[in-house]
Q: What sequence folds into this?
């Protein structure tokens, strides 16, 4: 019987029972893809990470990320949660107080992480995301409104409905008010008929510039294709969200720098805060960083007969 230790975290929160849940298996060596997918389905969290330790040929950790339905090439909250774990459990030699840079490998390639340590404990993890790109646009406001069970006038017509990707495409839908965001009821039938077939409109990200707290944007994300009815914190969509807000001149650029806080998960009772930083040049976005904290909720062992 194989005993597989794992750690459970809440990511993009400093408190328990908030943010996005994550299970990290500390050593995935010897597990097949089918087994990892089955474990992710069994745990039924939005994502599960399997870590593979450094080797002679690969001097950094490799991460494989699974939703209950499929493996992902890259994802935000699993990367941030694992980065937080690397620092908090001192799994990387030579970590010191201040900022430490670590590289991990995901299916999309190498990802640079910044681990911020204070008095020997992690306070924040940050990842460098690929530069987002616009991959599509939707003009049918009626279909988008129906998808969210909102009247057409609830969609902010001053902004475009765009698909943007930094590895995974999300369809960004601007919603006028916080009350409209609270009233969203995702229509799976409309999604299946109008949005699911196109990979650029498959994952739905609604946002409003009205917020509850000190954030600049209020967010909700729906991804039934990933086996996720609603996600409380979506790091992989947050870089593209910041890119959208800058490209459409919603958020001003000050000294070639943009800092945004996205609040998410509030309607689910799992409030999250995601830090978005965009470094700019005259030619456009030079670097995108996504950051946040995490809370280690517990540790366990999965028993596997193979």
A:
């Amino acid at each position: 019987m194989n005993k597989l230790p794992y750690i459970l975290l809440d990511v993009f929160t400093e408190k328990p029972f908030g943010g996005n849940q994550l299970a990290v298996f500390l050593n995935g060596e010897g597990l097949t893809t089918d087994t990892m997918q089955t474990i992710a389905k069994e745990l039924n969290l939005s994502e599960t990470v399997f870590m593979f330790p450094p080797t002679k040929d690969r001097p950094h950790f490799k991460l494989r990320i699974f939703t209950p339905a499929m493996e992902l090439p890259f994802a935000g909250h699993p990367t941030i949660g694992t980065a937080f774990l690397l620092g908090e459990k001192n799994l990387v030699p030579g970590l010191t107080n201040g900022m430490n840079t670590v590289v991990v490998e995901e299916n999309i390639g190498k990802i640079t992480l910044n681990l911020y340590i204070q008095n020997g404990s992690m306070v924040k993890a940050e990842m460098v995301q690929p530069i987002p790109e616009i991959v599509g646009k939707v003009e049918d406001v009626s279909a988008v409104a129906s998808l969210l069970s909102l009247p057409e006038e609830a969609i902010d017509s001053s902004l475009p409905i765009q698909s943007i990707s930094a590895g995974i495409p999300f369809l960004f839908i601007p919603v006028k008010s916080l009350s409209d965001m609270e009233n969203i009821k995702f229509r799976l039938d409309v999604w299946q008929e109008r949005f699911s077939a196109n990979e650029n409109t498959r994952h739905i990200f609604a946002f409003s510039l009205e917020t509850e707290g000190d954030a600049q944007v209020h967010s909700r994300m729906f991804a039934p294709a990933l086996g996720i009815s609603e996600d409380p914190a979506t790091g992989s969509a947050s870089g593209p969200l910041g890119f959208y807000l800058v490209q459409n001149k919603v958020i001003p650029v000050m000294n070639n720098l943009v800092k945004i806080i996205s609040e998410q998960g509030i309607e689910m009772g799992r409030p999250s805060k995601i830090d978005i930083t965009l470094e700019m040049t005259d030619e456009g976005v030079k670097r995108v960083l996504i950051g946040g904290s995490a809370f280690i909720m517990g540790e366990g062992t999965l028993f596997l007969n193979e």
